[in-house]
Amino acid sequence: MNDTSSHYDQFFGPLFFEPYAIEVAKRIDPSVSVVLELAAGTGRVTRHIRERILPSATLIASDTSEDMLKVAKEKLAHLNIEWQNIDAQQLPYSDKSIDLVICCFGYMFVPDRQKALAEAHRVLRPGGMLLFSTWDKLEYNAASYSSRSIAAKYLESPLPDSYNLATSMSDESAIRSLLNDAGFNKISVEKVALFSVSRTAKEAASGLATGPLYDEINQHNPLWIEEIKIDLEKDLTEKYGSEPMVAPMSAIVAEARK
Question: Which of 44, 76, 123, 216 has the largest CB neighbor count within 10 A?
Fold first, then answer.
């Protein structure tokens, strides 16, 4: 198991993605016959989709990362899932062949979002649904905001745009416009506030102090990482509790029909 993918699944999965996996799965029509999941990652949402739909329904779970899919396949080997490496901008399926396209926290990272949404529209059957989530602004995702704010002190600012991609689809009206331009109707775009929960603030601080931003800090001075963890634990404890740590988070959930 790749270390990065493993950490992503074991730490970020429960802290950030599991609550929204449950929330998004509730919105799925259980009677759908063919479901395509994009940006399946380590399979956290995939499991909830499989449990929600009929045993006879086809579930295609896809991602562009083989490392992530490897983790997902190992975890969900006992379930009836077709795994694919797929680019959301070029779906290898015929027109009007899918009942539901679902993408949790993936479209923010797609270079051509309009093309990706148009592809989802193309493969959906008439009446089919696109269901996806994206992160709200960083300041509404408290644990991540604390982590970024403390880490940013150790790097020259402003930070490159690449570090802001995760929260780059937080504008509800812009999302609605993208969906309209892709041909969708009956569009619903709403903010959904939930909570990030960690057993302790210390565990949250240790887990948050990873990723590209921290890799860059580590290259400057590895000792800074431990300093950040101490400061971050203190900040999280003061604001969101020590054991457990419960911090607010927010995402955009969009539903659109063809």
Answer: 44
Please give the structure tokens belonging to residue 36: 């395509």
> How far apart are alpha carbons 117 and 97 in whole angstroms?
15
Q: Identify the CATH number of the domain defined by range 3-257.
A: 3.40.50.150
**pTM for this structure?**
0.93
Please state the domain extents for the chain.
3-257
- Cβ(35)–Cβ(99) below 8 Å: yes
Q: What is the pLDDT of residues 120-170, one digit of tens each?
A: 999 999 999 999 999 999 999 999 999 999 988 888 777 778 889 999 999
DSSP β-bridge partners for residue 131: 102, 255
> Distance (Å, rounded) from C-alpha 69 to C-alpha 61?
9
The b-or-e profile of 52-65 (16+ CB within 10 A means b, else e) is: bbeeebbbbbbbeb
CA 175 to CA 182: how far, in whole Å? 11
